[in-house]
Amino acid sequence: MDFSKRVIATDLDGTLFYPKRIFSMFTRDNKRFLRRFIEDGGRLVVVTSRGLPFMHKIPKMLGAPCDFICCNGAIVSIDGKIEKRQPFDPKKFKSLVDDLRSRYNPSLFLLNTSQRGTVMTKSFTGLFARFFYWFYEAVQGVYREKTVCDDHVFYDEIEKGEGFKMMFFVGATKTKKLFAERLTAKLNEEYPDFNFSWVEQFIEVAPKGCTKAEGVAFYLAKCAIPKDNVMVVGDSGNDIPMFDAFHANSYCMDHSPTSVKTHAAHIIARVSDLEKVLYPSEGSTPRKEI
Questions:
Q1: Is the pLDDT of residue 15 over 90?
Q2: Cα–Cα distance measured from residue 41 to residue 49, given in angstroms and rounded to the nearest whole number
Q3: N or C: which end of the chain has fewer CB within 10 A?
Q4: Cβ neighbourhood burial of 233 (10 Å; 0-12, 13-18, 19+)
Q5: Considering just the CA atoms, what is the radius of gyration of the chain in Å?
Q6: d(Cα 201, Cα 108) in Å, to the nearest integer?
Q7: In this structure, are residues 8 and 229 in contact, taking their beta carbons and an 8 Å threshold?
Q8: Most distant CA pair in the chain: distance in Å?
Q9: Which are the contacts of 122, defined by CB distance < 8 A and separation ≥ 6?
Q10: Among positive and negative, which fits the CA dihedral 57, 59, 62, 66?
Q11: pLDDT tens across 90-106, in order?
Q12: In this structure, are residues 163 and 157 in contact, taking their beta carbons and an 8 Å threshold?
């Protein structure tokens, strides 16, 4: 079957990386399906908030080529070439970080940079929080990203380096997760030079014009692929722009929050469920959200 000019644009954490496999990265069904799709001429593009340094693992573990939309659309890589690279404006970004610290005092900031990978602040972070993060990273296995934990390095990257996406921790409780969703809408109104989205207990920040939807649109234009030929897949608040922009072919994970699922046209349990859509003679299509 020829799937040239067909694209699957999928989120990673909670989506393509679901359920998690800390040694093999992908489930057997997801890997088999995607390799089949690519061998039949389709294109796979990973759409993630993760940074570019992590991406070299994906084709290696998958055993097939793919493209990347990283940092929520701030970086787009096609056939191994960077086609879009949009870092923060240093002065505006530093002002934002100082303001967020003054108003909300988040216990944790994580910044994706071009030179040092992920940089985390450790000031204003208690011993328990640092231990929790260390433990969290220790059990990530193949999903782990190299992280520099230094407040001075963090600000040095803001002022002199290139930052593409930042996330800050709001809180682990259910109440804090709901607050993160509400706060995201407020921040988008108050800071028009940035784009805010939420993922569970974190709020993510990207330069204005950098969302997953805009990253996918840029990708399709560069590859001369029609909008109707892309299937977008995700599970979190930062995937909502994709669901809204490419609604007819939007697929949300069944374990996602209801507030996310209502934006998608279809609900699936695994990325491999898309095989039933692309190869309809072999099975039924996923359930549709009403």
A1: yes
A2: 26
A3: C
A4: buried
A5: 19
A6: 11
A7: no
A8: 58
A9: 130, 149, 150, 151
A10: positive
A11: 999 999 999 999 999 89
A12: yes
